[in-house]
């Protein structure tokens, strides 16, 4: 498949050169700009104060070319490609955060639950200002990842700016081998509600979710909570497979549209979860990419009620194109946008929950501290779920919705005044 992609590139360049000749101005004159690039390359190679290899010059140029397009497109060297694949498939060394680039600096999309970053209290939206004292401004995602990762058991010092509180603080995080368990679940016996947390969309996520659902459905649950908070996304195919468990066959899950890439993904199978079982999905600022696909799809079909906060807003499709089967690395490039079944494309905007329940940083911190304390006191591993509806307002509202007890604040006040 990769060879076919590259065999097609040359005719595409020729045809685009012909069609671009009819455009006004020089913006699309490929011959002119390749000539300019060759001059820049010649100057750098022959006039820079130290000798630089052609390999380094081309790698630097390739990185700059892609990173200036958007925060998600980049060139990987062979070594960087290996690190990226380890990250994607859920077994890697580091601290356990998904990052993006905004205004020249790395920001936290989501800390992965149970990882050192999560335990250190990093939040979605945090801006990493320094890594081990080094300013991060202008760094690529790959450079940031390289500096954060290291030998397990060693520490990385992060200087973090938290916009919501307008404060900067420093935190030392211990590096570890990150084993991501994609699905965790529990049964809320008192309310007869099933709770499932999807941590990340990995190759085995849908299969693990199916196992959890079967066990919960056997308990004759009255409702289901799917927690996608702080889920940074993952594999598109897994998002489609997860949505498929809740939809009738033949329903559009997501469409992708770009200049070259266009596709519609539909649910192929009968639903595992009965249509009449109430479903609530928990979302927040750390809900991104594949988790937004699932949330947006089920929201469009009114199959689920979204509770929480506006999501991150990453509706871009990236494709990984190896160069010579990975011998010279790969290009990760945005090729299309995601669209929900109703045609919504909410890149940089995010999904608006049906019921908005905001939590302050202080409330999140109290929740994290309480859960951490309970884990330590009762020796509960991160492979098991610990919930606290008294401190987790979003979870509490989700339970009320499923029980039919939820009333918006204004409606509740009106009911009281009518008594």
Task: Provide the descriptors you would attach to this structure in a database record.
419 residues, alpha+beta, five-stranded antiparallel sheet, 19 strands, disordered N terminus
How would you portray this structure in words?
The protein starts with a helix and ends with a helix. The N terminus and C terminus are likely disordered. The protein is α+β, with helices and mostly antiparallel strands. The chain has a 6-stranded mixed β-sheet, sandwiched between helices. Strands 1, 13, 14, 17 and 18 form a 5-stranded antiparallel β-sheet that branches.
List the helices and strands and how they pair.
Elements lengths: L1 H19 L9 H18 L6 H14 L6 E3 L1 H11 L2 E4 L2 E6 L2 E7 L4 H4 L7 E5 L2 E2 L5 H8 L6 E8 L4 E8 L1 E4 L3 E6 L4 E6 L6 H13 L5 E5 L8 H9 L7 E6 L4 E5 L11 E6 L6 H11 L4 E4 L7 E7 L7 E10 L15 E2 L4 H18 L14 H11 L5 H10 L1
Parallel strand pairs: 11-12, 12-15, 15-16, 16-19
Antiparallel strand pairs: 1-18, 2-9, 3-4, 5-6, 5-7, 7-8, 10-11, 13-14, 13-18, 17-18
Helix pairs in contact: 7-8, 8-9
